[in-house]
TrEMBL record:
The keyword Transmembrane applies. Keywords: Membrane, Transmembrane, Transmembrane helix. InterPro entries: DUF1468 (IPR009936). It holds the Pfam family TctB. This is Tripartite tricarboxylate transporter TctB family protein. The chain crosses the membrane at residues 6-26, 38-59, 79-97, 126-148. Residues 7-149 form the DUF1468 domain. The keyword DNA repair does not apply. It comes from Undibacter mobilis.
Length: 157
């Protein structure tokens, strides 16, 4: 299924506004001019701009005769449809379990499952999942000072 870019742009704008609004609940760091809400707010603003550009393009295509929704050729391939839903399920699983289990174990399992699903050899998938998880954790926790959920690793980290 392929939706017109105007629909995708509108959804992107709505999600970005919700993301921006959610950052109002983030705690501020005393003595710092910025906090953990800075990066999500910058990202939300950029996504709103992208959503507006998508809406512009979609409305222009609609005026030229394009449909609001049409089926894409990849939707006839069951493996690709499964991959699409696996991505959605993995994101929902991260949202549900990251706070309890922690970022590092959740991200590792999620990345490993996705690598294996997409055909990466098991040894390469394990090494890549470990390295990517640690790099992402270091980037957000250390460089951007975003407090990632520690979960089960609270005593170690």
């Amino acid at each position: 299924m392929r939706a017109n870019d105007a629909i995708n742009g509108l959804i992107l704008i709505l999600l970005s506004v919700a993301m921006f609004a959610m950052t109002a609940t983030f705690p501020a760091f005393p003595g710092q001019p910025y906090g953990p809400s800075l990066f999500p707010r910058v990202l939300a603003t950029l996504l709103v701009i992208c959503g507006a550009l998508l809406m512009w393009r979609g409305l222009a295509a609609r005026l030229a005769g394009a449909r609001w929704v049409e089926m894409a050729p990849w939707t006839r391939d069951p493996w690709r449809v499964g991959s699409f839903f696996l991505m959605i399920v993995s994101l929902i699983a991260y949202i549900l379990f990251a706070e309890t289990i922690g970022f590092i174990p959740t991200a590792f399992v999620m990345l490993l499952a996705l690598f294996l699903w997409f055909g990466v050899r098991p040894v390469v998938a394990i090494v890549t999942a470990v390295v990517a998880t640690l790099l992402i954790h270091w980037f957000f926790a250390t460089l951007l000072r975003v407090p990632l959920p520690r979960g089960l690793l609270d005593r170690i980290l």
